[in-house]
Fold this protein.
Amino acid sequence: MGGFLEILRHFESALEVNKQMALQQGDTGPQVEQLQRQLEKLGYNIGRFNPNFGPLLNEIVQGFQAEAGLVVDGIVGDRTQTAIDRAVAGITLPSRVSPPPVSPSGDFTTGNWPEWRIVTQGGLNARSGPGFEFPVESTLTGGSIVTRHPDYTNPVQGDRVGKPWLVITNQGTAQFIRANNQFIEPDIQS
């Protein structure tokens, strides 16, 4: 009986170590931000990178787990992290050959162009997240040039209704502007 209890204690100890290494809702730190960057590369709409594992990231992790055929628990343990690492390693990035295409409604669905020009005369609001519900952080003047944010593999993020928003670098942080040709155009000289 003593041998069984010893094995059980060892198993419980191993589970506790694995649980401590796993990431889950409520965790904070650079590992959480790295996880966000990996999931953003896979096309998930992270919003602004931050060190907090909140409800949105939990939902995204569960979505990834479901798509990958893993146990859906929102915990990023060894299996989930390995699946994420493999998926990210399989990504090939397109090279820039021509400006991004425009949809019939004027939306840009890809934003892999380095610089963009604001074309609205009255200026364009830059927000803290992809959508009109996020607060305005600055107003960009017509004719000004903005740069897509270098940390985002997918610089166009969808809002709650599916409209695209471009992630730009402004005032030292990531901000979001509506990705539509009524408001912006690729700066071809760049």
Notes: The helical segments are 2-21, 30-41, 55-68, 78-89. The chain has a mean pLDDT of 85. The chain has two domains: 2-89, 115-186. The chain is about 30% helix and 20% strand.
